[in-house]
Fold this protein.
Amino acid sequence: MTMHIIFLIDSNALKQNPGGQFGNPQNYPGPHPPLKYGRGNDPNTYTNQSGDTPVTVYFNEEVLISVQDSNSNIGVACAPVGFVAMTWQSNPITLDDLTGGDAVIGDISFRDTRVNSYGYDYVTGSNSPWAPENDNTNYLVTRHDASLTSPVKRNPYILVPALATAGVLQYGLEFYCSIGGEYIGNYWFDPSITIAAPQ
């Protein structure tokens, strides 16, 4: 199964607070953006929650994370370009947590399979392996830059592989945003995922 998590960013707030760049994003203005999440391919059936809500994911479920405009402005284009592993069970995360035999996450991937329909592309050669974050070496980050070819309605996404260890992962999500074909900036915020055994 796949858990879809869609963060609903406010493009009006971003337009009033431009800034940040790839690898050096600006804090998302205001509280964490609200989210909706669920299984299956119909977002109309997903649950709406505050952006501070840790989404519960069951063992062996992959997680698909994307960013969309809450104002439904068809000129707004967003793409997640960075995933920062911050803490695991409130402790600093380690490279073994990400890539070892008992990895919490494993290798995530940036997907743009919808690029031909929606006009986004991840920049060839810009993907990076897990490495310490610039601002906090206790955090580990992987990034993949994106470029815009035309305003789009939907977005590329990050795919986190199936998870199999119970606990709470706090992570940072960096995303790129443009409005009407004009680059506005890169932003980030830090939500959480709770990994649990199926009930």
User: Anything to note?
Assistant: The CA atoms of residues 54 and 192 lie 5 Å apart. The first strand starts at residue 2 and ends at 9. Residues 11-16 form the longest helix (6 residues). The chain has three helices and 17 strands.
